[in-house]
Every structure is written in structure tokens, then in C-alpha cells.
Amino acid sequence: MKKYLGVDLGGTNVRVAVVSETGEILEEIKRPSLADQGPEIVLDNIAVMIQTLNTSKECLGVGIGIPGPVDTERGCVTLATNIKGFAGFPVIDYLQKKLNMPVYLDNDANVAGLAEAVVGSGRGKKIVYYVTHSTGIGGALVVSGKVVSGHNGYAGEIANIVIDRNRPKVDHLNAGAVENWASGTALVRQARELIDPEITSAYPIFLKAQDGDAKAIKLVSTMCEDMAYMFSAIAHVVEPHVFVIGGGVSQSHEFYFDEMIEKFKGLVHPGMKDVEFRLASLDEPGVIGAAMLCSSNGDA
Amino acid sequence: MKKYLGVDLGGTNVRVAVVSETGEILEEIKRPSLADQGPEIVLDNIAVMIQTLNTSKECLGVGIGIPGPVDTERGCVTLATNIKGFAGFPVIDYLQKKLNMPVYLDNDANVAGLAEAVVGSGRGKKIVYYVTHSTGIGGALVVSGKVVSGHNGYAGEIANIVIDRNRPKVDHLNAGAVENWASGTALVRQARELIDPEITSAYPIFLKAQDGDAKAIKLVSTMCEDMAYMFSAIAHVVEPHVFVIGGGVSQSHEFYFDEMIEKFKGLVHPGMKDVEFRLASLDEPGVIGAAMLCSSNGDA
């Protein structure tokens, strides 16, 4: 059985695991990522963690998932979000020399999408579009088991898709960008204004809607419609066999998936209505998908 | 040099050509497609045309481009637009038995996109998104020389992408669908209402705008903005290395490309602004792309 190393690098912690070709985690360690200490220290720390694992020498390669868009062709991060000094740093070159094995890099949403496509809910489907519905909104396109990262790593940056160009601008994203109106953060922002300034997460909003609160019902319904416009745009661009949806908000799927999918069906051609919406199924798509970069991209 | 047969099947005419692996047309014939006489007669006619070509026996396969979404996995048309009785007919099975060589099928926009991606303006680029800006609006995604057709053949049906959900519904497409506001047909419809009921094509609208007609300037400008929203949605879903644009309206590119691209840049992340917009370059992408289906999908 082939084995790969998967690295899930976040702003606070980094996980390193030995993963089997079928997506099973065989060994795993987690340590602080030292994200504020610059790329060399962050990567040296990862190299030490790899050497600590018993079976790391049996692995055929290392895959790394990292926040922000990644230029997979040049092997570096285009725009680092919460890891200092990573933008433009030659991550692949640096680690490859240190570890003497192939190194692959992609962003965390793409990596999670790859895991779900290959060994999770999208398994066996040719075109998988993974969507994280969480504090933010992210996505990943996986075709025939390979991530399509985009020219500069921005494929799947669906947060910025405009679902209603007449809404006011909220932040650096487009006016009417879906993340500003349908993400967990956006729901909370709107609920604080409209319903209760003490609300801090999406879950109580769903509960209020279930209890018949008219404002909460309207808010959830508009979120469903906004998400449906986003899914409809994606479907007309790539028509996936399945949408796999993960992320914190999607854990409340019983409160909104039916309405969202119904609205989606109203925004696509009749022949496209059979696209499936499935919940993500992996506990740790980060390390698993990172490891899968080795089999997806390389000859390993 | 490998040779393939390409078939460009339209509602009026059908072209059959022998095409080299580098996209050169070596032999070609054109006849009426007999589109109203049912699939057997249409396909028998194509088979006879193929046998008429001198070098058809040297070809490694046949590719067919056909209007409307195609289920490439089952080898049939999902929804025939202007060819009678084709929906659900097993085109590939029928022709394969008759010709005794591999047969591939895809829709005409996907086929044209494949030609442009492999031997036209997108040559050498990994992710190509082809857009026809014509009486209608269509598209095709080509990744690493292979068409991504979608689950039911609807990938690239970008006509139905909503660029402004607050516009009135025009036809069977979504209210605010880009085709209803930015296609050649949509431009003419709006120009007849706003400017001159005698207008019959997009070109005179561009000329009026150039001459300083305020209404024409506004119309062209809004079209540029609407197209920019569509391109922005596509870019956030797949981030192509290049957009290749063909079709009748794009022949007037000097009147609107600059403004459209400028508006696009205002609707994407700063790191995505270097995506290239190129004009389609092939005279007959239909037969060439159809032939390329053989090398793109098969082992041929």
C-alpha cells in the first residue's frame, strides 16, 4: 500500500500525517505552526515533524495545504492570508531540498475538495465541486481526481461571485459578493442588525427561524436564494456531477439545504436538476487531501 | 501524421473533413444536413459523405459536433435544438456500427472551444475558457486539452448565468441571464426599443456609439458591464489562463473589448487581473474541433 505525507498548515497549528492511498490516517502529529516567524522557521518545523513520524521514510511524497491562493506551477503562495512572509516564497523548492522527496502545494479549500472528491462524498464522480459554507465561503474544482487550481490559484475563489449587484459594498470583495451576504459571518452581521445584537453564530438564527421568527425566516430564506444563485453560476460554468458541501454552517444543513436546493433547481435548465448536493464526510480533509496531492499531481 | 474525421452538424448544412493532428484541414465536403428527416437519415448521410473522402480510411476516428447539450458518457444528445428527433438517440452506437471506427460526440460550442484550445488562440495554455459572443452566448471549458462537458453536457451553458437578478424575464432563461442582455440578439432588441426600430444587427449599434449617440454609448457600456459580470463569475469558478472569444459580435471587438476587459478587472481579485482575453483565430473551429475530439478523448 502506497503512503504519502499530508501537511495541513494553518495560522495557529500545523498537522502532519502519514496517509494511505485510500485516505486512511496512519500516524499524525500536531504542533503550533509558528506562523508569525517567517517561512523558513515554519517549514523547518514541518521538516522536523516529518522526521519524527515513524513511517515517513516509506512515503512517496509530501503534499501541503495552505491558506490563500497558490500558484501550483511556480510552487509558491500568491497571497498569504495569515502566515507571515509566505507570499512569493519558494515553498516547494525549499522543502524539496530539505526532504529529498517530491513536494506538492495547494490551498486549503482545494486540498479539502480533493480529499472529498477522491476518498470522501464525491468518490467515484468525475466532476466534483466542493464548497465550504463556513464563516467564509470557498470552493474547489476537482476533475477526474485532479484539482483545477487556476492560472494563479484563484479557481474556487467563489466568495467573490456577485449574486446581486445592487447590494452595498461590505469589504474588499465585490458589491453583492456571495460571501458578504450568505456566509456565517454575513448571517451574523445581518442578524445582529435585524434581530438581536447579541447573536454570535449562525445556529441560533436557524433556531429562531424554526421557531417562526419572521425576520429570521426571511434572513435564512434570502441566504438560501443567494447560495442558489452562486451554485447556479457554478453549474453553468462546469456542471459538476456532485456538489460536496462542508464547513460550519453546513452542519445546520437540516435547516436550509432543502430550500436552497429547491431554489437552485429554479435557476438551472431542466436537464441540470439532477446534480447532487452531498454533505462533506471527512473529519480531517486537510491532511488527507494534502497527502492526496501526491497521487493527484505526481507519478507517485 | 495522424488523421481524424471531423463532422460539423448544423441545422442547415453538415461539413465533413479529414483533419491532421495539428489541425490542418486536408479534405472537406459540405452538404445539406437533412436535419428535419430524423436521426437515421442524417447519420446515414454523414456516413456516405465520410466514404466519399479519399483518405477517410486512414483516419483513426470520427468526432462530431452537434448543437445542444450532449451527454458524452452515454453518447447521445440531451436536448436537441434544431435537429429533429436527436434527443436521446444513440448517435455514437449507431455510427460506430456503420463505420467501424471510434466515434466521439460533443456540442458545437465545446468542439469549437477544443479547437481553439488545442490548435487555435489558446494553444499551449492549460485552462482555456472559450466564449462565443454571437446571436447567443455559449462557452466551453477545456483543461489540459480535454473538454469538460459536465454531468449532462451543460458545462459552458453560460448564457443562463444571471448578471443582474433584478431585470425582467425575457424568455425561458433566468431573469437577468446574460444572453438576454448582452448577446447580439439582446443588443438588437434593446436598440430597436431605445434607438431605431429598423436596426437588425449589432454592428450599426457600435457605429452609432462611436459617432457619439448617447443611447448607443449607454447600451454598449451596459453590455460591457454585463459581459464583465459573466467573465468574473467564470474566473472565480475556474480561473482560466486565457479566455478565447469567438462569434459574430466579437468581430466588432475594437468597439468594446477594452471597456469590457477594464470592467472585468474591476470585478476580480488583484491577483487575477492578468488573465488574457484573446480573439478566436480559426476559420472553421467546428470541423477541426470535432476531429480533435478523437485525440482529446480517445487513445487515437
UniProtKB/TrEMBL annotation, chains A, B:
It comes from the Bacteria. SUPFAM superfamilies: Actin-like ATPase domain. Pfam families: ROK. Belongs to the ROK (NagC/XylR) family. This is ROK family transcriptional regulator.
